[in-house]
Amino acid sequence: MVKKHPGGLCSGQLTALEPGDTVSAFLRPNPGFRPGRSRAPLILIGAGTGIGPLAGFVRGNTRRRPIHLFFGMRHPDSDFFYGEEFPGWQDEGRVSRLVTAVSRGARPHYVQDALRSEATQVAELIRNGARVMVCGGRDMAAGVAEALAEILAPAGLTPAVLKAEGRYVEDVY
Question: Which PANTHER family does the record match to this protein (predicted)?
């Protein structure tokens, strides 16, 4: 998933490619960023192009594991990546719940705000063994960790505890 950013070097080059063009690149694997084989629910949290891997997890959810997806975007008319696929994924049981947050406009709302709005359900899912996966920018990930720390404090849990248990993983840039 690539979105062209004004003045962006890499995104400008990649979006200018034509079919048949080649590019020299490398992949940086993140082997810990996998949903795992458990049947425990997943809480997927991403913003912008961070939705790419998360959409792949949803698309591959043929076992209909409960997935609660929190997706942040700047503008719903241009940044709701995979938006046309979500209704089908919900109908097929590949995603249980989709919560979106729009950060530009009259009432800016970020994924961490969406998590706080759903704090009771998020805390219950995590208390019942849910795995949390965060993908996107570092600032977003820091905001998500802060929101989860607030949400989980009454239960005596923290993102650090979840990380130590292998139930909180990130792929951030």
Answer: METHIONINE SYNTHASE REDUCTASE, NITRIC OXIDE SYNTHASE-RELATED
